[in-house]
Amino acid sequence: MKLKHVLAVSLLAGIAQVALARSHAQTYPLQPVLDAAQSDNAVQLYFADAAHPAVVSDLGNVTKSIRVARKIDGEAESCNTAMTQALRELREYAHDQGATAVIGIQTRFHETHSTTATEFACGTSMSAAALKIQGELVKFDAK
């Protein structure tokens, strides 16, 4: 009888762990992140198919994966923190590669993609917020 109770409790604990470990993906507005972010004008960011100056040199693509510990401030705030970090890392990498801009920026979390200039995709779990960001490193005409 004791073995049945141990097995039942173990099974319930396993189910609870799987339920809590699931992640939730959705899109969030980009503007609050951009408003709060400190901009370094050395590298400009252009999301999705936003218009930009003429490209003189294509320096390749970049993808960054970001995961931040989730705080008690909610999913949106945790995702905003992850996106802020993603933009900072994207700019730093672009600068180190000699790019003046990153164009065509898109975000995703698993199968949830954002290819607009107004939203970004992010996933949250009980412990973290995460996303992938990608774009094309370029140099613009110096006019």
From TrEMBL:
Keywords: Signal. Residues 1-21 form the signal peptide. Belongs to the UPF0145 family. It holds the Pfam family YbjQ_1. This is Excinuclease ABC subunit A. Transmembrane segments: none annotated.
